[in-house]
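Hi team,

As requested, here is the filled-out complex form for the zinc ion run. I kept the field names the same as last time so the parser does not choke. Let me know if anything looks off before we queue the next batch.

— J.
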Amino acid sequence: MVDRIRAAVWLGPALGFEIRTLSAPELGPGQTLVRIESACICGSDLHTVEGRRESPAPSVLGHEYCGVVEALGPGPTPRTTLDEAVQVGDRVVWSITDSCGECTRCARGLPQKCRHVAKYGHTAWESWPLSGGFASHVQLRAGTPIALVPDSLPSAVAATATCAGATIMAAVEGATGESALVIGAGMLGLYACAVLAEQGFEVTVWEPQAERRRRALRFGATYTADGPEADRRFDIAVELSGYRPIIPEALAALEIGGILLLAGTVSPGPAVPVDPEAMVRGLSTMQGVHNYRPEHLQQTIDFLAASDKPFAELLSESRPLADIAAAFDAARDGQALRVVLVP
Ligand SMILES: [Zn+2]
Ligand SMILES: [Zn+2]
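And here is what came back:
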């Protein structure tokens, strides 16, 4: 039985973290207590800590995570995304959003924007202390989408599914055509290379850093460039760098009927010009993508379990939760695409 729980509580920009201990929470009906095995520092956690992105404080951050079910609340047993009963001892990941399933946005198939959404790693400590991955345990709300993690998949790799991986699955869902452009070869970009290549696309990457371009070739890209080139057109383009000035150039690189998916811009900044005549004549589509639906999380776990791509190489050595401040420094320095914390 759990008696002591530790959480790295983020106090706000410039205030940093403090480790708090607490006793095990009393679980409500349908709730689940998960012991964290691994949690990764995502780029948006960095934005939050550096004050570029609004987030409640104090709170427990961390929304890329994997853990083991330690206790179940009373009442109906939670079910996985494949409708299996969740059991104590299961190794699991869970969606970063928990939605009501009944509001107009849920009804439209946008549960990640539910009018009553609760977000893991993004909720005030007072209302829900154990909401994030940078802790020894997380208290899952009833109804949170949960996916089982196969034994073959290391926890730290599985953790990358819950933000980066599932976001890419959501972005490229239903993509058609032959040629794909991926802009930016960070964590999201490498996922995009791997998933699009498996779907049969010929993948080109725009990425200014030579080392990242080389790595993209090992994740399924067949051609890389340090930026836009005049003579290539793409059926689908996925913007994952967050570099706004590239957006008009990505639109200009679309083949007739092409689609530009924007998923990389997650903090405020200046607007960029769009040529509506070119979009009309090109039958172009530009679409934003943020977070994902439960099935995208399951698809990501299935994808990782079957993939031969070296995702584990993108992760740092595991660092203890107590060293979270240094871990954020390492993430900021780009020592690995994902710095991994273990409680
Ligand atoms: Zn809803
Ligand atoms: Zn994230």
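Two things worth flagging: The first helix runs from residue 43 to 49. The pocket of zinc ion (ligand 2) is lined by residues 42, 44, 63, 163 (CB under 6 Å).

Thanks,
J.
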